[in-house]
């Protein structure tokens, strides 16, 4: 996979902060099981890139409450299917190439002050995407 966020060339995964941890399988404070995604560090407003080539579909919502970060898109192709959340994509459908601008990071600090801002990357089958990053 390509770099997902400008300013994070190694796709570094969010550590732990007062809101929880960014690794796959991290426990969730609200008791809703485990984190079935990986959080890649990304500064608010940063450019987000397609990790692989494929077909876009969306919008994809995670919170379903219309907050400032409730947006995202799904990419399917190259043998992968992922949802990238907390980003505003340049478009919700059509083809995209690996490394092409996908959109921009939404203002996570506005919703969760003090969190490590990040893109939530979730495999469509809920398996662990870490090895691809």
UniProtKB/TrEMBL annotation:
GO terms for molecular function: metal ion binding. Keywords: Disulfide bond, Metal-binding, Signal, Zinc. Signal peptide: none annotated. Gene3D superfamilies: Glucose Permease (Domain IIA). Coiled coil: none annotated. It comes from the Eukaryota. Belongs to the LECT2/MIM-1 family. This is MIM1 protein.
């Amino acid at each position: 996979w390509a770099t997902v966020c400008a300013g994070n060339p190694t796709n570094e995964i969010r550590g732990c902060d007062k809101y929880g941890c960014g690794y796959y399988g991290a426990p969730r404070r609200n008791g809703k099981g485990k984190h079935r995604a990986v959080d890649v560090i990304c500064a608010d407003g940063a450019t987000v890139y397609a990790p692989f080539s494929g077909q876009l579909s969306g919008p994809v919502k995670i919170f379903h409450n219309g907050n400032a970060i409730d947006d995202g898109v799904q990419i399917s192709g190259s043998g992968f299917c992922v949802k990238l959340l907390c980003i505003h994509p340049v478009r919700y459908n059509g083809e995209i190439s690996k490394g092409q601008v996908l959109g921009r990071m939404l203002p996570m600090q506005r919703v969760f002050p003090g969190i490590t801002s990040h893109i939530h990357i979730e495999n469509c089958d809920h398996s662990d995407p870490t090895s691809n990053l």
